[in-house]
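Researcher: Here's the sequence for the chain we discussed earlier.
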Amino acid sequence: MVRRDSPAQGNPTQPLHDFPKIEVSPTDVLYRAHAQGKSAWWFSSSGGGRFDLTTGSGGTCYLANNIRTAIREHIGKSLAGAGFIHDEDAGKMCVSRLHLPAVTKLADLNDEEGKSAAFGVTNELTAGAPYDLSQNWAQQFADSRHGGIYYRPRFDPARNAASFAIFATKGVGTWLDGWQEDPAKMPGRKATAIAGIEVRGTPRIGALTVVKPLTA
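Model: Thanks. This is the structure I predict for it:
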């Protein structure tokens, strides 16, 4: 008998061309939290992101449907563990409002009828770690001509939270390719306030001076 607490998610076992899809329009507003001074359109291929395309010329840019989700996915484990964001981190961050350059069809891991289950998808694909399995699915979605993946975020359990993994050429997306930057990026401290995420100014360990106690 298979233990219920063992991983159930496997690799794709059938072609994904007919996988459920959802369309994202250029009129839809998406959000990305990222470092100040850096482009919002970064298509990662390093393997550090859940759905990174790690082979070939492709990469993945991660966006969200609201400011809160964008921040939680950007900060990730440190926010989940502490329950707040350090003021220093909030100051280094900004949030961009973005639009895709064209109608894009994404593999829909959240389809309302649950048809993705027939392809072997479980929620472990969007919440489990490490990311090797998820990245294999991402590559096969890209090879099946999906423009990305629509899925539940790992670090924001809210019912209205959604994430978007968009596929394009790896590296920085340029305006020549339609990847327009937000000219009015929202500062991190303002964004966290709008999102209702607590910011604290507690010092980091590395910033503290260790004083040895006096001997008697």
